[in-house]
Amino acid sequence: MSLFRVWRNFCTATLLANISLADLTERQTPRPTGHWLSPEYKWIFEYPLPIASVKSPKQTFKAPSGADIDYYEVELKSHQKQIYPNLPPTDMTGYDGMSPGPMFIMQKGREAVIRFSNNGPSDMSVHVHGQYNRAPFDGWAADTADPGQYKDYYYPNAQNARTIWYHDHSEFTTGEHTYHGQSGFYILTDPEEQALGLPNGGHDITLSLDAKVYHANGSLNYDTNNNAGLWGDIIQVNWQPWPHHKVEPRKYRLRFLNGAVSRTFSISFTPDSRPNSKIDFHVIGSDGGLFSGPVRTNNLALSMGERYETIVDFSNYKGQNVTIYNSRGMGENADYAATDLVMRFVVGDTVTDNTNNGPVPSYLHNVPAIPANAVAEKNFAFDRVGDKWVINGVGWADIEHRILTKPKLGNVEIWTLTNGNGGGTHPVHIHLVDFQVLSRTGGRNTVLPYESAGLKDVVWLAGGETVRVVARYAPWAGLYMFHCHNLVHEDHDMLVSFNVSTLSQWGYSPNETIFIDPLTPEFRPKPIVGEDFTDAAIQKKLQWFYDSDAYKRGNLAAVYSGLDAGGGGGGGGGGSGSATATAQVRGKTRLISRTLGPQEVQRGRGKRQRGASHL
């Protein structure tokens, strides 16, 4: 080899070795030239992805039965975060003074009490979105803690492993509060999942997708466009605009959440080496946990509140960038200069840890078959009336009418959800239950493979669509909410409730009320006073929760067995079903439900019973 070639190769190697991430980003980053609502953001892919801290329990109640309860304390408070490098920090309100809030990693079968103290500027109600909490701990929108109050939320952590999240749920202000920083991840894990050998530790990453608008001074701009929605021009992941994240050339588990107020996403992965292509990856789970087996795709669509778990293999892209792109022209989304970009993975050259880097298992989890024993089909239309978004003509402000339906505890029902005259996107979230998506007609006219592969608690209802879902209304009786997860729509006024009960009338037997009424006085927020925060006082409170046996010590098999034995499974005689029900709403008769079965549908008329006004 000539001396020149040796010198040339040496210089080339030295140059490559000294290429910094900033150099790589400078060469590879698109420079958007389109329209901005916010001040132009010029640092795309330059700043690293924030990773939320994991919250640790402050103490543990040692139960005689071994069913210990972990106790956590979280403080809601104002804080600042640097979003634009050249502008003042942005004012926010977050859990423990951070956005995203701290991440909870909970073990199945180990209950928890989280004390949320409100030292923020406005009221607070916290919803852990994705598990079956008893009604007083589910974040009922009217169960708000004022500044200077705290509330103890008692959580079961009894379901299968899943990616869930927590966020504010205060009536009429959920969107604004969440937009300003009140959300975080809540991960539930179990031995079955842990035995699968899925990527974990630093190879298991939570990614909350969001979209914001900022004023010229760097403050957040909450403009709802006449209550239609807030789509945002600044795409953020874990509250960082267009971040990068360094990965090794191996498999990663990426857990996606659409945490935006109104923007839907349709994402894909593209490597530098093939700029016009999309990388195939596996979707392994959704809202209700793991699928029975992986679903292969090269595109993932998420509406607000939806979660999907994926396995992405970077092994073929050593030394390259892999960019997540977002499709333009999604429904009523407004597209801006850089809303087609999400984040970038900077793939290294070597693997330092091959732990849990094997093939994706072909079997993951037992997903129950779609139940065939539905006893009722109910219809809910999501419409816009004037400046209000409503469900069957009713909104949250209509206190006397907002309980729309009463499933019998344990029954299986099919709900037909229709996007009515208001258009727009309505991701429908039903509290308490996991459901399965049966069909979608109109609009996209199909159920995507990863939508039907597992259990869900949010379903994307786009313009012109009708979606049918099936769920068993269990394991608890009580008042729960369902609503649009476009949080602008929810706040104006697309939020209603349903009453799961074993009773034939609207109301409750005396021994049933403590966990059924979400405003039960014993569980309401209380003033923050020092004596309530002593170790002795906390242990006494945890003993009280333990003695209440709210979650049957996690023995859900016995709960469901009891429901089945009592005819609550939906497969019993006709007495457990519901006849055709209608509701008189503002002078119009609306069909709500009909009995299912081979017999002719029974038809009836009558006004819907009213719920208690304080609910």
UniProtKB/TrEMBL annotation:
Signal peptide per UniProt: 1-22
Upper lineage: Eukaryota, Fungi, Dikarya, Ascomycota, Pezizomycotina
Domain Plastocyanin-like intervals: 83-192, 392-501
Keyword tRNA-binding in record: no
The organism's place on the tree of life at top rank: Eukaryota
Keyword match Protein biosynthesis: no
Bias-annotated ranges (Basic residues): 604-615
Keywords assigned by UniProt, alphabetized: Copper, Signal
Renumbered residue ranges of the record's region Disordered: 569-615
Name of this protein: Cupredoxin
Family to which the UniProt record says this protein belongs: Belongs to the multicopper oxidase family.
Gene Ontology MF terms in the entry: copper ion binding; oxidoreductase activity
Pfam families: Cu-oxidase_2, Cu-oxidase_3
Entry-linked Gene3D superfamilies: Cupredoxins - blue copper proteins
CDD domains linked to this entry: CuRO_3_BOD
